[in-house]
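Dig into these lines:

——
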Amino acid sequence: MYTPKHFAISDQQELLRFMKRNAFGQLISSHNDRPEATHLPFLLSQDGERLLCHLARQNPQLDSIDERQVLIIFNGPHAYISPRWYHSAGVPTWNYQSVHVYGTARTFSDEERLMSVVNQLSDKYEAGAENPWQPDYSPKMLRAIVGVEIEITEIQGKYKLSQNRPSEDRQRVVEALQAQGETAMAEAIEQWSTP
């Protein structure tokens, strides 16, 4: 990912936190020189060295990932930034947060491992619900999916949050975004755009 120095995020703990908060990503691979992608939620292992997910057994992307390098993209908030918000000269742009993860994928069909992945995903996304769904599915349903474990080999982070603009411009961008209801992006700029 093209990342100018002032937008680069290299703190591994921050990148792992970002991946956990924005766990719905795109699994990208190549098959016969044609890119393929599947959008799905990921689980990050406790040691931060692996990602877990599952695909429908009928997903043709399964033919192109086992024992091969894949790319997973996680995105956070993003927003159009108008040059009319700047005090100084500028051009239209887009602010965003993105993390790219490279790794080697390995598929698995072990029922116990699949059940663990499905249960962990359910627990994560049902947490806080008044009446959370309790896992209740037949082994036949598990046979309809294939697990994927990605051994992480590289993580790249880019937070393009107006860090290259003067502080007055950054403040005006924050105010304009807040007025539009883009609070997540405004908060990210305030947090990460130090002069």
The chain has a mean pLDDT of 93. The two ends are 24 Å apart (CA to CA).
